[in-house]
Amino acid sequence: SIERTLSIVKPDAVAKNVIGEIYSRFEKAGLSIVAAKMKHLTQEEAEGFYAEHKERPFFADLVAFMTSGPVVVQVLEGEGAILKNRDLMGATNPKEAAAGTIRADFADSIDANAVHGSDSAASAEREVAYFFNDNEICPRG
Ligand code: CMP
Q: Name one GO cellular component term (predicted).
């Protein structure tokens, strides 16, 4: 079915100037960008976005990294978009990411891992709404 998922190009990938290369991977895989914005997350925005991880030992480093520079946040739409995006990204830890995935090609570490993508339908719904109002999403049909 046609799904929407929330994707973030993280500060490391923005700094490497590979926003376009990452967008190309989405588009070549049949995903459409139906909403997008660049922004420098505040501490509160990053903490709220990653609230489910707040008890994890890496939470402070994750928030510090995600606020270290601008990110690009987008909604991807297409057939099976949630899993398709996760397949394109590869494993969270780039050392474990399959060849040809975004993280294998552009990520440096588990923290600076180039992209985020929603991990389930429930997360996608929450995460899309966290960054975008309905009237900011432009469905492609
Ligand atoms: P992301 O998909 O954005 O979701 C949470 C992020 O925490 C994850 O990508 C990683 O960049 C980061 N992280 C750091 N350490 C870990 C870990 N041990 N397990 C999972 N995520 C981690």
A: cytoplasm
What is the spatial distance between Cα 12 and Cα 28, in angstroms, rounded to a whole number? 22
- In this prediction, residue 36 has a pLDDT band, given cuts at 50, 70 and 90, of very high
Give per-residue pLDDT as tens, 100-127: 999 999 999 999 999 999 999 999 999 9
Q: Contacts by 41-50 with C-beta closer than 8 Å and gap 24+?
A: 41/66, 41/67, 41/71, 42/67, 43/67, 48/130, 49/127, 49/130
Q: Is 52 helix (H, G, I), strand (E, B) or coil?
A: helix
Counting from 1 in the atom list of ligand 1, the atom nearest the Cα of 65 is 11
Closest CA to 7 of 128, 125, 132: 128
The chain-wide mean pLDDT, for the chain, equals 98
The residue assigned the tokens 């923005």 is: 14
Which helix (H) or strand (E) segment holds residue 12: the answer is: helix 11-15
Within 6 A (CB) of ligand 1 lie 53, 58, 62, 92, 110-111, 113, 116
